[in-house]
Amino acid sequence: MTEGLRERKKRQTRQYISDVATGLFLERGFDAVKVAEIADAANVSVNTVYNYFPAKEDLFLDRSAGVVDRLARWVRGRPKGESAAVAVLRELREEAEAVSPRLGLAVGVARFMQVVDEAPALRSRLWAIGQEALEEALREETGAPPGDPLPGLVAGQINWVHQTVTTAISREMRADRAPDEVSREILVLLDDMEELLSPKVLGYAVRADG
Are 72 and 134 in contact (CB under 8 A)? Predict the structure, then answer.
């Protein structure tokens, strides 16, 4: 269906507020910027900002949708015979080997990563969103009942691998390291972390052949 004038205006307003907020966050840091300042800079009311973004963290994470749900997407897209954890490890290795900007392995992303590293609220929100999406995917993939704690426990282990990798990349890229050098170190780190995961985690949610 063709987008109507009202819908297009709302989308453009939302995008503009997001752009203004992101610019302020990158310039001054997440915690230093108030929602009222974002509203003033975007020439809208504070209520308008909250109508589009229920929480301040949503303003920053608006650009991170592909990051926070990628673990769940990787798990859902795994081939037959592959477990959830192995699928995520494989995807991370492939991204690292490709020196992929999607993993933060690129010049120019250090400031974005620094904003996240310096804001506990952002780090907590990223963890929570990723954990929730991954746990939901694992429950769906395994048919686990609502009271089963195992999908959440496994999701926490997989989420730990992902967060450890992204934190290490952020630290090294902020130190002006070359992306290809960092990628090689990340591959070693992934090997180390895989050895720390239990057979139960590595063998959980293997996609059936049938």
Answer: yes
